[in-house]
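Q: Predict the bound structure with adenosine monophosphate.
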Amino acid sequence: MNGCVFCKIIKGEIKSEIVFEDRDTIAIKDINPQAPVHILVIPKLHIPTIVDIDEKTSTSIFNAIKEVSKILNLNSFRVVNNFGPDALQTIYHVHFHILAGRKFSWPPG
Ligand code: AMP
Ligand code: ZN
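A: Predicted complex:
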């Protein structure tokens, strides 16, 4: 989609550090990491939010999360999806944050 940062990353128009990629999904390092490990798992289709995801895409996202955890040897991590303004979603091309490498608090702020 025109003007979408993640579509540009997927097309290679904006540089990113790719940690995993398959036909349907890409996983990149977050540009503004909130933990020592901060990866974004992004479907290649421009799907705006979590409630727009279809079954095939959700399967590929969960597989990508598992593959990233193996590649980076993560034995503990948090997965976050921010949906909508109250949750501070800033990019309306759905993505899942994988955060690791430090202790997290619960409940989240
Ligand atoms: P959210 O607030 O859940 O929509 O998350 C958007 C995330 O995208 C933030 O953590 C940003 O740091 C990250 N981000 C924005 N632009 C880029 C980029 N060019 N490369 C990698 N991560 C990015
Ligand atoms: Zn997009």
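A: The chain has a mean pLDDT of 97.
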